[in-house]
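anyone else get weird line breaks when pasting these?? whatever heres mine. first is seq + tokens for prot A
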Amino acid sequence: MSSYASDKAGTIVPFAPTPKPQSDVVADDSGRTIVALLQKAADMAKEDCARAMDLAHKLSFQLRAAEERLREAEADVAHFRDRAARAEQWLLRIHNEVEQTFFQKKEREARNPPR
């Protein structure tokens, strides 16, 4: 054999590791971006839910207050309706007594003139 052949065998250089294909890097970046966007969407949904719950609590409190005012107003209406009914009864009684006292007396006098 020649010295040329033995020199070539001793100078073999190993291959460098193959770099990741470009498509794997793009897929990793896309995956990270998607996960980040999903996290952002989840955070926004939590904030929206918290705002909705706060508004629901506020409206619930206002509704309870309005219902309480309504109950008070209904009680006032019942009270004043009762007072109005009693006042009407008194007015009717007064009217009847005035009729009996003044107008029946005049009718009696008109029927029986003094002699």
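and prot B, same format (seq, then tokens)
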Amino acid sequence: MKELDLINKITKIFNENNDKSIIMGPGDDCAVLDLGDKDNFYVFTVDEIVENTHFILDFLKPEEIAIKLVRMNVSDVLSMGRANPFYALVSGGIDFKKIDDKWILRFLRTLKKEFDCWGIKNIGGNLSRSSNIFFSIKLIGKVEKNYVVYRKGAKEGDFLCVYGFCGSSMAAVDIMKNKKRNGITKIEEKLVYYFTRPKLYKDFIWENCKYFSAMIDNSDGIYRSALILSKENNLKVVIDFKNMEKLVKPEVLKWCEINKKNPFDYSLFGGEDYNPIFSVSEKNLKFLNDKNIKIIGRFKRGKGVEVLNYDGKIKNFEHF
């Protein structure tokens, strides 16, 4: 079963629509609960980083894994609008034949520093033995009721926009799969840096989310994110492949040129960049005056995702 199909089945089975405190259950970046706070909803999310699925142990440093783990979870919270995480539960599976005490201490100290940067307090967790090392974070946060944004909310005619750049993480994954850390170039080291330290855009989201009709974080790539938004909003998303050119960092362009790869495929299909993907109406677009906003498509009547000016093979991002 494909990952997206499995998620759809989970969402259908666990749709608890008889509990009025559940504002949003399975199917968005966070679950959203009304727990009686006058001004805020509470948001809950969980994500994990798994050896040989999300990272290669011999390639990445423990500090890099810790930073990536925190930011991929914080990204889910920020994608709900004017939101903040504040509590975390951390769990992990460890094999001390692969890592030692020093590795764990380096990981934990960096985890603490990263939590401090985001105002997060660790309040508990769980440890187990595992042949594949993994770490998981459950985040609890708040989102202002007047500034919450869901995946659902886009209207026919809305623009699909991206803030920041895409494709760097997918390029880094190719590098990690095919090279040893001590054998990579300066450009490749930069791409690995982007992978392990994804930039999050809290200030932009907090300032502008009131103009968004829908939002999702770019954990799964633009194409798959567009599929999700299409399904949630019962609309067709039309993307122009030519718009992928403006989403690629110079380092990705250079690396792809050297390695004879298409950088714009990376920007369309590559996941784990964690920048916001959002919809905005034509009326509200004029309020978004920021050069880092890129319009890549539009919502139209219909279903699915259409990519104009693209003759390659659609490669839907999958975590497994």
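btw re prot B: The chain has two domains: 3-148, 159-308. The longest strand covers residues 134-148.
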